[in-house]
């Protein structure tokens, strides 16, 4: 189901990418898969700016999905980036909440403690990155997001060393990695002047 939706989105985004050269960047393009398809972006307008904004990230579909619902009117890359930060923060808070309620076998207690700490760091660091973005310090915001990914890896590694106990929140943690990676890629794009500020 999720896969089918993603596929619809990939096809839609690909055709939007193809049409970018053909349409003025101010025009709106409706993403409306067949009415019977429960695509996640049905009813939401995706403007070419969002496609351009997300296209260099590792997960452009996730990027578009997390950004599109959160802006009205004219596209603003900084507002879009704030949304991607917030999506990463929300997902990290979700993982932190899972960790707080989790019971694990004793082999994994140390790993869980490490993860608890790492996700505290992650939440604080994303908030710091958001403050930096607010004062247009994109370079330091970039380094903050690099640390977010490092903290997240430290948690994953702790489970690798927990005598065969698998990470019970691996799927949710993977989404933190994908969203955080998107933020990093977008910041990198801004630093390398692909976007005007
Ligand atoms: C993050 O969570 C808050 C509170 O639940 C919600 O209002 C907001 O829309 C979410 N933001 C994103 C980008 O998902
Ligand atoms: C950054 O600015 C936005 C928009 O003005 C605001 O909503 C947000 O709370 C600010 N974030 C921080 C961490 O100060």
Automatic annotation (TrEMBL):
Signal peptide extent: 1-22
Keyword tags: Signal
Pfam short name (any one): PMEI
InterPro entries: Invertase/methylesterase_inhib, Pectinesterase_inhib_dom
Transmembrane residue ranges: none
GO-annotated molecular function: enzyme inhibitor activity
Domain Pectinesterase inhibitor, first and last residues per copy: 45-186
Keyword Lipoprotein: no
SMART domains noted in UniProt: PMEI
SUPFAM superfamilies: Plant invertase/pectin methylesterase inhibitor
Name of protein: Pectinesterase inhibitor domain-containing protein
Native organism: Lupinus angustifolius (Narrow-leaved blue lupine)
